[in-house]
Design brief:
single chain, extended, mainly alpha
């Protein structure tokens, strides 16, 4: 937030990094610095960028599948670490269903719904829907309602 207030690009962490660190078990800053130099060279030197282009798509696809799998497992571990309450089960289930179903339905019915472009863009983004539904349900179920005993 501070970086955007002073006109800089927002700082973010990418979940791909979690998958790569989990897969390779290498979390050294030196490795990240070398990767940054390589990426800068890819962007500035067309001949160096041709090396990336020459890499077979199947290799890139395999890396993508592995990283996505590790990210998914990290998310499942976080869900497993949550308290086993009815509220949390409902929160997780509804968030997943909304994030998966709403974009699918909106894309299929976009012509009939006649939604404004910003609303359609919002409703077709699974991540945004998951965050908003998850946060709102968490506030409603775990903060405003009295706690229920798990049966």
């Amino acid at each position: 937030m501070i970086s955007t207030l002073i006109g800089a690009m927002p700082c973010t962490s990418y979940s791909q990094n979690i998958g790569i660190i989990t897969t390779t078990r290498i979390a050294s800053r030196f490795v990240v610095q070398i990767a940054a130099v390589i990426l800068i060279l890819y962007g500035l030197c067309p001949k160096f960028g041709a090396l990336l282009e020459a890499m077979p798509r199947s290799v890139l696809g395999a890396v993508f599948v592995i990283v996505c799998g590790m990210i998914s497992v990290s998310g499942i571990r976080l869900l497993a670490a949550a308290k086993n309450t009815n509220e949390n089960s409902l929160l997780i289930g509804l968030t997943l269903i909304c994030a998966l179903a709403i974009p699918h339905v909106v894309k299929a019915k976009a012509q009939k719904l006649l939604l404004p472009a910003p609303v359609e863009l919002f409703l077709t983004n699974s991540v945004v829907i998951a965050v908003i539904v998850g946060v709102l349900l968490n506030v409603f179920l775990n903060k405003t309602l009295p706690p229920q005993k798990n049966t």
